[in-house]
Amino acid sequence: MDIPGTLREPADLEKYRGDWSGLKGGLPAVVYRPASTAEVAAIVRSCRAQGARITVQGGLTGLAGGAAPDAGDVVISLERLNQVEDFDDIGGTITVQAGVPLAKLAEIVEARDWYFPLDIGARGSCQIGGNVSTNAGGNRVLRYGPMRDLVLGMEVVLADGTVMPMLNRVVKNNTGPDLKHLFIGTEGTFGIVTRVVLRLFPRPAVRRSALCAVASFAQVAQLLKQARGRLPGLSSFEVMWQEYLVAAARALGRAVPLGGGHPIYVLVEAEGSTAPQMQEIFEGFLGEMLEEGVVADVIVAQTQEQAQSLWDFRDAIGELLKQLSPFVSFDVGIPLRVTADYVETARARLQAAFPQASHLFFGHLGDGNLHIVSGPHASEADQLAVDEIVYGLVAEVGGSISAEHGIGRIKKPFLHLSRSETELEVMRALKRTLDAGDALNAGRIL
Amino acid sequence: MDIPGTLREPADLEKYRGDWSGLKGGLPAVVYRPASTAEVAAIVRSCRAQGARITVQGGLTGLAGGAAPDAGDVVISLERLNQVEDFDDIGGTITVQAGVPLAKLAEIVEARDWYFPLDIGARGSCQIGGNVSTNAGGNRVLRYGPMRDLVLGMEVVLADGTVMPMLNRVVKNNTGPDLKHLFIGTEGTFGIVTRVVLRLFPRPAVRRSALCAVASFAQVAQLLKQARGRLPGLSSFEVMWQEYLVAAARALGRAVPLGGGHPIYVLVEAEGSTAPQMQEIFEGFLGEMLEEGVVADVIVAQTQEQAQSLWDFRDAIGELLKQLSPFVSFDVGIPLRVTADYVETARARLQAAFPQASHLFFGHLGDGNLHIVSGPHASEADQLAVDEIVYGLVAEVGGSISAEHGIGRIKKPFLHLSRSETELEVMRALKRTLDAGDALNAGRIL
């Protein structure tokens, strides 16, 4: 299939099959790498005319297999749609094409003394369009919200090849349905995001970090409420249960901080100005939490190097995953008031079923996002049993089976645990309305 | 029409016609005041069976006439759906029925040492369901976002009478389309919101306010960027052009603060803890802005009474509207970098066309929301001419014709200025999907 004015580049089809922890996509029939919205639209129209199915690809860093093609799919990779189109220094907005990598965007923005707060492990390869389509989260959702809250406007190519511009640049816009939410977090199933207008923030001059040891989850919740109210610029609240911290220290070949004998650890980060009072407030707050017994022990980083060395434990997850492979990982959303029970019960059930494996708990608890990694689990049957323990409990407490990674292909069988039958029906009705021929990313989510 | 188990209360049909600055609704055929979701669903099903049209009503405080019934409509008023159903002190969430008034909610929340930040002039009468359906904004959007950002989950009765529960309680939930956005800001045209789960925040211990006089809009933009980066807890950034402040002072019978001779005034508010360093930072920041010449003059409130007396000027809008009646008012969204030009051009065109009338500019500029009031304008033709000047310019600069009040019936003729034909088509397709019979709030928005 040739599309006038676009590039057909089948050179290395294999590369576009991708690989998602064991899930490999089928071999696409053809890969297009359009360099403009008009080219995307032309490809979509041509596919429609021929009844071809489309898989949309960004940086191939998703964790739910949403970008895995079916064999014979037309792949549209947005990697060449990578231009910055507008930078508004006054209002603090940037307009970019969907294929711009996140790290490149952050660099461009910071060079002009602004700040784009989304930050995830895949920053070097992941693309803005993928961040939008999966509603990416990361470490600073507590302060800035997920990608959904950072998008002001966008342009989308619909399933019939129509280009829908909605390049809003203002924070408040109440002119009927806010259609961008149809395309945020829907993993390319309702349309192809080609351009995005993003909100920027003033660049924080410094970051302050501390690692707190806490005796119980009730005290973690207390620390969170106090920190939200009293720590200006609170940007991260990362919780690590003891087993996680001990395993991370081992993976890093370092001593466990604060002795490692406490049940829970919290990495607290606040962003702000260089005003000396900000440091006083940060240290004063933690000192008070220590005095009041909310926190059992604390390390306050005095330099950026010390801060990084605390963050190393949180960032050690990449290394840990290699050691626990083949692992099963989760990013569930759990209401704070049932988190302690959830962790205790899930851990007990996992240990009873798989006493030889490691079961690590950690997460962005400031926004209810709990990560669990369990492994190694060699057989598919074991992996499924782990899924059933973790997701079954999520359904029991009314949580979400995916707080940030999305559903894709991998979590589809469990979607009904988080969404009612009526919701699923409305989702299907939306899909029929926006993509009657099921041309875009068929078989994902629903 | 009688619905088993519900109250039919036609006692005072006249009251439910409402009155929206000149727009009076038609007389409804009947008014139902259901006290449960099941009753709402039964009424909707019964209307559907009989082909009756429904107007949904909350506190009747909307400014776009969205709650105005057509003659013969079935009105569903949610005023008796007014229970608080759950309060989560640990996670900071509250679950309420849609008819709870905003002020009552705020009171209940603050009594338990939490905080719900949405605050608008109509707080005493407006209801949470209406706040959701219109995506209400107000003075603290800069820090907390509009209602859209404060809703975690909801329950909706769809046009066919199906109850759709999506009572999510976690901040991060990436399990397919986030369906709540179909019902936020869509003014009851896609479904009837019956229950809402809201995010709460720690209650700020103090608020600090200052009034700054500024020489140019370029400096307002500079002050905003600096304040966002350096003023912890920045919660309001309310801009008032000179004519507004002078008129407000006259309406209040008070002297114009800071002499009244500056072109623009900014009311800055920051929320935070009682830590003495916070006051130092607030005053230090404003002192520095003064030294650097970003700000020409400033009053820092030293007590809550002084703060209130500064806010009186912003809140004088209610009084001003009475004096300028019959007025035409706007809440447009304008990108910051074109705001200065927009105001200058709009003012010049309005003055040229209506030299006898007052044209006042003010707004929540921290989020691009500009309010304009022009009056008195006795004739409908003059009012339309004012609309055309203001909205025509909005379209020229790529702004939004409604930043917070919504479209309803009143702004429908201008919707095409803010939304492309493709967007309007997708909106119509969504309406057909969710309410094929056009039963819910027909004739609003589209």
TrEMBL record, chains A, B:
Domain FAD-binding PCMH-type, chain residue ranges per copy: 24-203
Required cofactor names: FAD
InterPro entries hit by this protein: FAD-bd_oxidored_4_C, FAD-bd_PCMH, FAD-bd_PCMH-like_sf, FAD-bd_PCMH_sub1, FAD-bd_PCMH_sub2, FAD-linked_Oxase-like_C, FAD-oxidored/transferase_4, Oxid_FAD_bind_N
Pfam families recorded: FAD-oxidase_C, FAD_binding_4
Keywords attached to this entry: FAD, Flavoprotein, Oxidoreductase
Keyword Oxidoreductase: yes
Superkingdom, natural source: Bacteria
Family membership: Belongs to the FAD-binding oxidoreductase/transferase type 4 family.
Protein name: FAD-binding oxidoreductase
Lineage: Bacteria, Pseudomonadati, Pseudomonadota, Betaproteobacteria, Burkholderiales
